[in-house]
Amino acid sequence: MNKDLHARVKHIVRMQDVVKTYRQGKVDVHAVNSVSLEIELGDFAVLCGPSGSGKTSILNLIGGLDVPSSGRVWVDDIDLSTLSSSELSEVRKNRIGFVFQAYNLIPVMTAYENAEFVLNLQGVSEAECHERVMQTLYAVGLEGLEHRRPDEMSGGQQQRVAIARAIVTSPAIVLADEPTANVDSHTAESLLDLMQKLNREEGITFLFSTHDQHVIDRARRVVRVHDGKIEADHVSA
Amino acid sequence: MIGSKLAKKLQVRIGKKIVYTTTDTYGEIVSDIARVTGIFTTGIDMVDGVMALLPIRSVQRTLNYKSDEATVIAVMIKDQRHAEGMRDRIAALPESENAAVLTWKKSQPDLAGVIAFDKAGNYISQFLVGLLIAAGILNTMLMSVLERTREFGVMMAVGMSPRVLFRLVMVESFWMAIVGLLFGIIITAPWYYFLYNTGIDFSGAFGSDFSYGGVIVDPVFKARLFKESIMAILGGLFMLALLAGLYPAWRAGRIPPVDSLKTI
Fold this sequence. Notes:
The complex is a heterodimer of chains A (237) and B (264).
Chain A: H1 3-8, E1 11-24, E2 27-40, E3 44-48, H2 55-62, E4 70-75, E5 78-79, H3 85-95, E6 96-99, H4 111-122, H5 126-139, H6 155-167, E7 173-177, H7 185-202, E8 205-210, H8 213-218, E9 221-226, E10 229-235
Parallel strand pairs in A: 3-8, 3-9, 6-7, 7-8
Antiparallel strand pairs in A: 1-2, 1-4, 4-5, 9-10
Helix pairs in contact in A: 4-5, 4-6, 5-6, 6-7
Chain B: E1 2-3, H1 4-10, E2 17-23, E3 29-35, E4 39-40, H2 45-48, H3 56-62, H4 83-91, H5 104-107, H6 109-146, H7 149-157, H8 162-197, E5 200-201, H9 203-206, E6 211-212, E7 215-216, E8 220-221, H10 227-254, H11 257-260
Parallel strand pairs in B: 1-4
Antiparallel strand pairs in B: 2-3, 5-8, 6-7
């Protein structure tokens, strides 16, 4: 984890009066409705709420995958609303890791290549790439499986590859959208153990969107979202 | 030497004599006698049935021509595309002072016109074939991009910029063009070889005395491929493939990652 980051910023994510409106036919749907939120560096936080409450939309806005209709989003003190699509790509590449519900691994690449992909985009040297990928795959418990393709791995293993891909660049924050939704409860527990360990030992900030009670129980901070608005924000002692 | 059909018509064999009559340089009717030394067969009725070849000296004598006079001197060159250059070189010779030096296009304007018309039709059909090829490549590239929308969404989500994605799809188009051209060459080369060396015999359909634009044409049609044409075809198809890849490449980078990730 970048120590310089800790010295520079307290809140890795800040949202100010963010609104996201989608047009469905002739109706405007407010997926995110005037949300203001701050996520501290090193946090292990959860956005929870029923389906359609706006959790994923908030994650997408923080991740620069989507742009707000109004309001502003800062990640690592960078105002995402002022950036072009290429600049947003740079922010995602260097500062954000993503873990998706459906794993979203590149099917033609092995576990090693999936994890290596982002480092290649960053222009990291081959030798350093190899060292970091192997270290990360070891950290997520995938040693020996680096040459397997996604279709040769279980759901849990695929999600571990996704986690490896998300953390291999030492991002400022990992955004995980329903990371346990497609795996059984035992695998979900082990994935949460892994992410909690990475948070505790590596200082990586995690922000989840979930309605899985197992995830919610593990979170240090729980933000409840309903109808695109923050309903409650609870921080554990 | 006389054509085989003419020999048959005149009922002559090698060694027999023939009397021929013509007009000389003063317009007087003159006759001479010649011995048949050979009978040729070209397979073309209009040649075999009417043509006789005589030694130029004896004909010049009969026609009262001087030893350096002739009505027509035909110059055969390997590549007809160099006809204009050859004409200029011959016209510049002092011996050509009182002669009209013409290319085949000028001496055979009917044939040149028919060929020009045929070429124009050929260019139009080539353009239409090019459009079809471009549409095929565009369709292939577009499908290839669309079916990987989610994959591209993931790549963009983890930090690939639209510019890099555009480049990636263009590199795919480049390799598709290279591989396509290689396969195209492999598949079509034997046919070109056959058409170049053997050709297609249309004598069954047109007969052996097929004329075109006032000129007798060999009923065996052969293909001739020039180096410049090969380069133009390969280069043109390569550019066509790259151009057809532009839109899918542009489109790949334009789909917002959040939309791409929703794709199944």
